[in-house]
Amino acid sequence: MRRSKLIRLFLMWVCGLLLLTGIAHADELTIDEAIRMALKNNEAYLSALQDKRKAEGQIKEAWAGALPSLTFNGGYTRNFELQTFVFGGDQIQIGGKNDYSLRFDLQQTLFGGGRVFNALAIARLYNKAAGQAVQAARQALIFNTRNLFYSAILAHDYVQVSQDAVERARENLDVVTSLYDQGLISEFDRLRAEVELANLKPQLTKSKNIASIALSNLRYFIGYESRREVELNFDFDLVDTITTPELEAALDTAFRQRPDYVQQDYLIKAYKKAIGISRSGRMPSLYFSAALEWAATVDETFPGDGDWNRSTSASLSLNFPIFDGLESSGKVKQSKADYVKSKLAKSQIEDAIRLEVEEAISSIEESKLRLVTSQKTIALAEEGLRVANLRFKNGIGTQLEILSAQEALTTARTNHIEAIYDYEIALAKYEKAVGFDRWGKRSRK
After folding, report:
1. Strands annotated E in 112-259
2. What backbone torsions phi and psi does residue 102 show, to the nearest 5 degrees?
3. In this predicted structure, what is the pLDDT of residue 21?
4. Could you give the strand order of the β-sheet that contains 69-78, starting from the edge strand earlier in sequence?
């Protein structure tokens, strides 16, 4: 009995340990995984994919004007009272009590003034434009994910800097208290150390709250549904920074593969085709139609094989507009205005691209310089704090020197993590500005 109780206690202990281990374990999330989840779950991007499928359907719809149409009609009529006429003194009824009809109609547009094939060309151009819109939505989603991911990393690093500052202040307070107890320093120095520690604790609490909010924003944006804790996996190495891009080469790349710029080219061509459709209202149209019909009129409920009469017909129809009340002229004028506006929109996009690329390159260069400087500053600040602590312990330094050195080190580390964040965001802006997608396809014409 005692042995079984010990076994049960041991099993409960193991289960509890496993449960606690599972709760304590956090899922690691890299930037690649965050982007993959965002592309899978983000509603705005999924909506853009549906617009692309809609454009593909419009191509099939446009083919309807070029391909023949074949329809079938079947009908039945019950005649309760038949028409009659008098001939030679006799009253004669016309028809039967039941009418049946089966009919096939074929219609084909032979010439529509270019309307049909222009509509098909426009549908294809819109499909290509929709593809570029998907790419633009994808790149915007990737940029926003990177921004939120690095923001969460920055907020987490702020917490670490604040924790380190609190630890240094606590260690300093321990040293000051020991010296005060020995009568080597004044009560003012001890109170000042206590105040410094008390001032840093609320900053740590605030940093943790900001980090929690930043992580929640990231989880919501990428559709992270797991309730488990998330630990962001990110390593930065100054060696991995890219060479500052050349402006002209970057602009050339952007004008070749920026999805919104390429998309506008397709839209310009589509608006130009739309002018042809508007002009087609002035052109003649030629249609061919054919019909095959079986009809039966009987008094019985159902017709027999010999009751059916077959008829066939074929016709050509020419429609030539003479005057349409200036409708076509108005449509042509509107289409030309849309075409000019689309070209102006391309110029606006080009100016925006130039500005984005210039700003991104400038930000990359600036953040790289700050990275190198801040890394060196951290080493200098750490050495300054070491010297200040040593001077204070030897009785030749002051508490003010230590507090000043601690603040300098905190500032240096803060500047460094901000430089890392600014560099990663500048790189993300640059890749978005030139239309480069390292996680998938590039935008191409």
Report:
1. 230-232
2. -130, 125
3. 44
4. 69-78, 98-111, 285-298, 309-319
Q: Cα–Cα distance between 98 and 307 in angstroms, integer?
A: 11
Q: How far apart are CA 406 and CA 386, in angstroms?
A: 10
Q: What is the pLDDT of residues 74-93, one digit of tens each?
A: 999 988 877 777 666 666 77
pLDDT digits (tens, 9 = 90+) for 39-62: 999 888 888 888 888 888 877 777
Write the single-letter amino acid at 59: I
| pLDDT-flagged residues of the chain (< 70) | 1-26, 86-91, 113, 324, 441-445
Residues 6+ apart with CB under 8 A from 398: 189, 392
How far is Cα 279 from Cα 277, in angstroms, rounded to an integer?
5
Q: What pLDDT is recorded for position 240?
A: 81
Q: What is the DSSP letter of 379?
A: H
Name the DSSP letter for residue 280.
G
The candidate with the shortest Cα–Cα distance to 333, out of 284, 278, 280, 282, is: 278
pLDDT score recorded for residue 86? 67
Report which secondary-structure segment, H or E, holds 3. Answer: helix 2-24
Give the C-alpha separation, 81 to 300, whole Å. Answer: 15
Q: Coil, helix or strand for 186? A: coil
Task: Say if CB 222 and CB 145 are below 8 A apart.
Answer: yes
Q: Which of helix, strand or coil describes residue 26?
A: coil
Residue 89's pLDDT is 65
d(CA 191, CA 403): 13
Q: Pull the structure tokens for residue 340.
A: 């000019």
